[in-house]
Amino acid sequence: MEKITINRVTKKSGITLIALVVTLVVLLILAAITINFLVGDNGIFRTAKDAEKEMEIAEWQERLELSKLPVYAKNEGKFDMDDYLDQIVQDGITNKEDIVENEDGSYEITTDDGYIFEIKPIPDSENPSDVEIGWVGTEDGPRIRDIKVTNKTTNSIRVEVEVANAEDATYKYEYRKEGEDDNSWKLAEESKNNT
Fold first, then answer.
1. How many domains does the chain have?
2. Same domain, yes or no: 60 and 114
3. Which structural domain range is residue 103 located in?
């Protein structure tokens, strides 16, 4: 009698440790890319927030533009700056206290949401026929309005700085010589504003 031998080949299925590690690394890389895409500097959330802010600024600017219409209607096609400033207060865009006249005849107004716009008479403050409206910034911290050199000698300079939104601010006066790099600023004085 003849003996028949059958060889059985058993095949084991599964994944190797190397394949598992490679898969995990690929998944981690994809997760990092996705997180960066969502919350990075140019991510979706940041882009959406920037777009929302730009839309709010445009809406405030449009409201300021539309406030001109009643002024023109009241003055039979002529523009009056005082009537316009009264109109933007009446329209609920700002309060009287949030309108600041600049030395050049323009005005800075701060909206209820803290957006700051410059209202510039055209062609000039003496004889305005219209205003140009430009966004300046937000009310979220101190900012420089104007810098004037009041005294200049061969070895010193004195400046006058006008700031906005600086209640209870601490001022640091630093200096550096012309030609020195940006890291060479030296502290001259620090003072607290008590207004």
1. 2
2. yes
3. 44-138
Q: What is the pLDDT along the chain (195 residues), one digit of tens a residue?
A: 677 766 666 666 667 888 889 999 999 999 998 888 887 777 888 888 888 989 999 999 999 999 999 999 998 888 889 999 999 999 998 888 888 888 888 898 888 888 889 999 888 778 888 889 988 888 666 666 677 888 888 877 788 877 766 566 677 777 777 778 877 788 777 776 544
Q: Give the separation between CA 83 and CA 76, rounded to whole angstroms.
A: 13
Overall residue count recorded for the chain in this entry: 195
Helix and strand element counts for the chain (H, E) = 4, 8
- 97 Cα distance to chain centroid: 23
Q: Is residue 77 part of a domain?
A: yes
Torsion sign across C-alpha atoms 105, 110, 111, 114: positive
The Cα–Cα gap between 49 and 164 comes to: 25
The answer, as to whether pTM is greater than 0.70, is no
- In whole angstroms, what separates CA 21 from the centre of its chain? 44
Q: Domain check: are 147 and 131 in the same one?
A: no
Instruction: Kindly list the distances between the CA atom of residue 24 and the CA atoms of 18, 28, 31, 177, in Å, as whole numbers in the listed order.
Output: 10, 6, 10, 55
CA dihedral of 166, 95, 111, 63, whole degrees rounded to 10: -160
Angle between helices 44-66 and 17-39 (to 10 degrees): 10
Within this chain, do residues 128 and 83 fall inside the same structural domain, yes or no?
Answer: yes
